[in-house]
Amino acid sequence: MASVPFHYIDLRTFCYATEDEKRVEDAIRNLLPDEFELDRVENKGHHGDRIIILSARVELADDMRYVLERLSELDDIDTIIGELDERIDDNCSFFLRLDKQQAFKNSIEIGNGITLRAKVEAYPAKHAAAVENAETALKQAKEQAGKARST
């Protein structure tokens, strides 16, 4: 994948008082390159319970390629590609929710717990151009991951 048609990729998850922060951190780290720095913000919930927000912004092309290759492991990546028109908004942002429990197990699945938001490069910044660019990037990542698995 020569170029990456994204300005950045944001990943975010919440760690509630009933969850082990280290396990939640491991879940989000399984989507990121090694030694990637996470932002940590501690908040309080409505009833005073602790909520920690863990997030990362991926801006370097090689790091974004890594995240895209992890996404290409989704069993239903073709479904995601088919839904890009609905998953990309008018501001050219691509949204996807991933299963936090499965990410902890180093498996990538659609679900709840981790939010991915990627700002798609599109010139002009139009929805249709963003969909086309994201589709190309995801298909290339899928192809690259397939080649890596076959070797």
TrEMBL record:
Instruction: Output the PANTHER family linked to this UniProt entry.
Output: EXOSOME SUBUNIT, EXOSOME SUBUNIT, DUF54 FAMILY-RELATED
The record ties this protein, via InterPro entries, to: PAB1135-like, Ribosomal_uL5_dom_sf
> Which protein, by its recorded name, is this?
RNA-binding protein
One Pfam family here: RNA_binding
